[in-house]
Design a protein that fits this description.
Strand order of the largest sheet: 8-7-6-5-4-3-2-1-15-14-13-12-11-10-9
Helix content: 10-25%
Largest sheet: 15 strands, mixed
Length: 234
């Protein structure tokens, strides 16, 4: 269903073979961020993203979306993605990831990364896939945070190894321009970043004070936009 695909896209939205092109800032601090979610310019829901430290270099990153308007509200669209990652060799690395999307029916996906054997196991409704892990690998849930941390470290061209269903994608991002952007949280002077290795349109606007984008736009699964409404340090 198109709405279900859109929800899965949102999780990717609102994601090192040795990180050759990125220098990360300091380890992230706990926060809560709320986003307005729009589809084709019309409000469809709200997303809440939280990061909390578990101690000893371990973190939990949660992305929850609830459909509040239009078809998303009628179908009861909800999605929840939770990643546990570690801060290792000055980079984030996914340890495990779970995703659950509900819209008439429920789809689930889990990713387990065994860093002792460097193996990734992905399980969803269709079966299980295994492939080799890559140092510094993140997942589709946490890559916006990893990208923001790399930008905060001074990088302008970033290659992120992102674990997807069947492989690791070495996704490439580059700062395109500095420009003003207005969102519910305010008006910001931001760096606009675009993905450069794919024809799937993705742009995000980052500012120095936040590790997540204040705005994110992508067209895969529909014309989807996320705009920051509120950010608070925990």
């Amino acid at each position: 269903m198109r709405t279900l695909k859109l929800s899965r896209t949102l999780l990717a939205g609102l994601a090192l073979a040795t990180f050759a092109t990125a220098v990360f800032a300091a380890p992230p601090k706990s926060f809560t961020a709320t986003y307005q979610v729009l589809r084709e310019g019309e409000a469809m829901g709200q997303a809440t993203i939280t990061l909390k430290s578990l101690g000893n270099g371990e973190y939990e990153y949660s992305n929850q979306m609830k459909g509040t308007s239009g078809l998303a509200a009628m179908l009861g669209v909800n999605s929840n993605a939770v990643t546990r990652f570690r801060w290792h060799n000055d980079t984030p690395e996914t340890e495990n990831y779970t995703s659950k999307v509900s819209a008439l029916k429920t789809k689930e996906r889990t990713m387990q990364v065994n860093w002792n054997s460097n193996q990734v196991t992905v399980t969803d409704n269709k079966g299980t896939t295994n492939y080799a892990a890559v140092p510094g690998m993140v997942d589709g849930n946490t890559f916006p945070l990893a990208l923001g941390l790399a930008l905060a470290g001074g990088s302008h061209s970033v290659t992120l190894p992102v674990g997807v269903k069947q492989q690791v994608e070495h996704q490439q991002y580059k700062v395109q321009a500095s420009e003003s952007v207005q969102v519910p949280a305010g008006t910001f002077n931001a760096e606009r970043v675009a993905r450069t290795d794919s024809d799937k349109h993705f742009e995000a606007w980052y500012v120095k004070q936040y590790p997540l984008p204040v705005k994110l736009v992508q067209t895969e699964g529909g014309d989807l936009t996320m705009q920051l409404s509120q950010f608070s340090a925990n």
